[in-house]
Write a structure and sequence with these properties.
The chain is α+β, with helices and mostly antiparallel strands and 44 residues long. Helix content is 16%, strand content 14%. It has 1 helix and 2 strands.
Length: 44
């Protein structure tokens, strides 16, 4: 696993950066740089 794909947050933990499509971001009311909470589910 590559560890160079993120950045450290205020607590020193590594955070990952993901891209979000513009139409999805617009629907959520978020702007570039805003924080979002992401849940990942395994496909069955």
């Amino acid at each position: 696993m590559r560890q160079d794909m993120g950045m450290k947050n205020e607590e020193g933990s590594v955070c990952n950066t993901i891209g979000i499509r513009k139409d999805t971001r617009k629907k959520s009311g978020k702007e570039p740089g805003d924080k979002v909470k992401v849940s990942i589910k395994e496909r069955m």
